[in-house]
Specification:
Low-confidence stretches: 1-36, 234-241
Order of helices and strands: HHHHHEEEEHHHHHHHHEEEEEHE
Oligomer: single chain
Length: 392
């Protein structure tokens, strides 16, 4: 370890030089690499790899800014992964054009947590990607996001390329959907399942593409209702009849979206409903020591949470899918819990409505993936359908 630290310090001047070069090569902020667990990678190589990963992982943010997807064929060394990137890019281009959504700019960075040497010039990396969006110059809310990845990179012909890239939260959702058992979150096991995950994501993307008109229709109706509410002076942070304080839910969610509350256990990779329950409890919904309490199924599971809140009279459930005529709604309120479903599984993600804008629509906060005031328009393009849990 001492030898490794000396090597990193020794390479500090080289890193400074590479930073100047990478500023011109990568049209996003330079990767922020802080870990010292780099195997035998030099500081220059760590910075270069970070720049490649940052460029790829910010692909959607670039589309949001420019309206156009990049070509990553020179840095992705796997045909199926490249196909997913290209097909997703085309889908996102169409989606954001259809709903007329763009951002002014963004700042992104990659943190390399550790590196494991697999063979000569090939490494397995544990990576954190973080970004902040600037929706407009004069818009004071800056959405934030954080994702965790495991990837395999390789140096070929003097250039670092990506062989495998897996989002850890996607891995957990997909493997649970297939096996309904607790998954092995070991990085090597995640990479071993990369082809299976790519197949599922490609199939899900096809279904979302086929459903894009319905998704756009649903989202636009919600936007119309939101603008109507704001123009009419409708107060979205209304007191709830059951005693639930919506603003308290929002305050908790925005306080702990990117900084986890140490008073609660954090469920790595699957904390979304645990976080939603914490916020709802902060808003006044009481603990039930028999069913709804920290760590219980009703507290941490997406479907069980919805059932508990509805069956016990704290909330009502409404679909946000225009094709679903069973209790469909366009009217969301601050503090509502919005749950999301992929085409390959049941509802698997919980978010909280924390800000309403007549220009950018609803902004949501969540864990796993960590999000602070993140545009609902982005969520709509990532999932197949959604529902609103409205607290009385």
């Amino acid at each position: 370890m001492k030898k490794m630290k000396k090597r990193i310090v020794k390479g500090s001047m080289l890193v400074l030089s590479v930073m100047l070069i990478m500023t011109f090569l990568v049209p996003v902020s330079l990767a922020n690499v802080t870990s010292s667990r780099y195997s035998d990678l030099s500081a220059v190589e760590v910075t270069t790899i970070g720049g490649v990963l940052n460029n790829v992982l910010s692909s959607e943010l670039n589309i949001l800014k420019t309206g156009t997807a990049k070509d990553y064929s020179n840095v992705i060394n796997d045909d199926k992964l490249l196909q997913l990137m290209q097909d997703t890019g085309k889908f996102k281009e169409e989606w954001y054009k259809d709903i007329d959504f763009k951002i002014y700019s963004y700042n992104s960075n990659v943190k390399m947590n550790n590196a494991t040497k697999l063979s000569t010039n090939k490494y397995m990396l544990d990576v954190t990607f973080k970004a902040k969006l600037i929706l407009a110059k004069d818009f004071r809310i800056h959405p934030e996001m954080l994702n965790h990845y495991v990837c395999e990179v390789e140096k070929k012909s003097g250039q670092w390329v990506i062989d495998k890239l897996v989002d850890k939260a996607d891995y957990r959702d997909i493997t649970q959907a297939k096996n309904a058992t607790l998954v092995n979150n070991d990085n090597a096991n995640i990479l071993a399942n990369s082809n299976m995950i790519l197949d599922v994501k490609l199939n899900d993307l096809k279904k979302r593409l086929a459903n894009i008109d319905n998704l756009a229709k649903s989202y636009k109706k919600i936007m119309q209702q939101s603008r109507k509410n704001l123009l009419s002076g409708h107060e979205t942070a209304i007191p709830s009849y059951s005693g639930t304080n919506r603003q308290a839910i929002v305050n908790y969610a925005t306080t702990y979206a990117m900084n986890h509350n140490p008073n609660y256990k954090y469920i790595k990779g699957a904390d979304c409903t645990n976080f939603a329950s914490q916020a709802v409890h902060a808003g006044g919904v009481p603990i039930n020591t028999s069913y709804w309490y920290p760590g219980s199924p009703d507290w941490i599971n997406v479907v069980d949470f919805c059932s508990y809140m509805v069956n016990n009279g704290y909330a009502r459930e409404s679909s946000l899918d225009r094709n679903d005529q069973n209790g469909v709604t366009d009217n969301i309120s601050l503090g509502d819990v919005i749950q999301w479903r992929h085409s390959y599984w049941t509802y698997s993600h919980s978010t909280i409505a924390t800000y309403e804008s007549d220009t950018y629509g609803w902004l949501l906060s969540a864990h796993s993936h960590d999000r602070l005031n993140y545009p609902m328009s982005i969520y709509y393009s990532d999932f197949y359908s959604a529902r609103d849990i409205y607290f009385w």
